[in-house]
Design brief:
281 residues, D-Maltodextrin-Binding Protein, domain 2, 26% helix, single chain, eight-stranded mixed sheet, alpha/beta, two-stranded antiparallel sheet, globular
């Protein structure tokens, strides 16, 4: 309503400027860093409210509590469980100005047309929103996620020369028993052990991304036995726990690229699990 001065003429009420609420980003410690928060504030004028969970808890919250976050920042494989719940909204490609700068790997499953698709999880198979609302690799004008980070995993090693660690089988080596760090997220940690078993000739999986029941049983029995034997120093859910273990002194090995990135004492040894695609929704 307009105010009136003594002359009787109307005067517009002052505009009410409400502060913008922080953008709530649900994810894990892998990408929720102070540097990203600062850059968002400086470059975009956005305040980010990081909701940091371990992988399993982030997935559970993403699936069951969509009102608790604005952006979901997680690995591509999470979409298999979260998308069917209806917690996430499709993104229109037309509203992503730099879509053309994203390479073909997450879009087509190949870096180049003459290359085979990767083994295991393939982001392109769950990227595009189909007419019936499901996800697939047939291009459409809407996507389930925006591909951002590709993670090349490697070992972080303390107490050994890189030349001594050239195969995934080292994760099962008795000489390292009690000094092995394992990611608790089954989609990552179980694959590390699966690759170690395959390198050691204990298993020959037909499809690393889709184990049959017999292969799953073989893998889980092996992991249970390793846990009983005290083979793992730490089974971690938060990266800070892995870092603390690496800094505790003595020999240590962990199959995760993030460790070599943040622990200066660690020696990175590229082992070749491939790329771990991550998404922001």
């Amino acid at each position: 309503m307009a105010e009136h001065d003594k002359s009787g003429e109307g005067r517009a009420a002052p505009a009410v400027v409400r502060p913008r609420a922080p953008l709530r980003v649900l994810g894990t410690s892998v990408t929720q860093t102070a540097a990203i928060r600062i850059a968002a504030a400086e470059d975009l004028g956005l305040e980010l409210d990081f909701i940091t969970r371990d992988g399993t808890e982030a997935q559970r919250q993403g699936a069951l509590s969509p009102e608790s976050f604005d952006v979901y920042d997680q690995w591509f494989h999470d979409i298999d469980l979260v998308w069917p719940t209806g917690s996430l909204q499709p993104l229109e490609i037309a509203r992503i100005p730099r879509w053309y700068q994203i390479n073909d790997l997450p879009k087509t499953g190949r870096l180049r047309a003459n290359m085979p698709r990767p083994l295991g999880g393939d982001p392109s198979r769950r990227l595009y929103v189909q007419l019936d609302g499901t996800l697939g690799d047939a291009p459409s004008d809407r996507i389930s996620m925006t591909p951002t980070v590709h993670n090349a995993d490697s070992y972080a090693v303390i107490g050994a020369e890189p030349a001594e660690v050239r195969s995934w089988r080292v994760l099962l080596d008795e000489d390292w028993s009690g000094h092995v760090l394992l990611q608790r997220d089954a989609a990552i940690g179980s694959l590390d052990i699966l690759l170690a078993m395959q390198a050691q000739g204990e298993i020959r999986a037909a499809d690393l991304g889709d184990l049959n029941l017999e292969e799953i049983e073989t893998l889980t029995q092996r992991v249970r036995a390793l846990v009983r034997q005290g083979h793992f120093h730490t089974i971690w859910a938060d990266e800070k726990d892995a870092i603390a273990a690496m800094q505790s002194g003595g020999r240590m090995i962990g199959a995760d690229g993030g460790l070599s990135r943040v622990v200066r004492r660690a020696r990175p040894v590229l082992a070749g699990r491939g790329l771990g695609p991550r998404c922001r929704l």
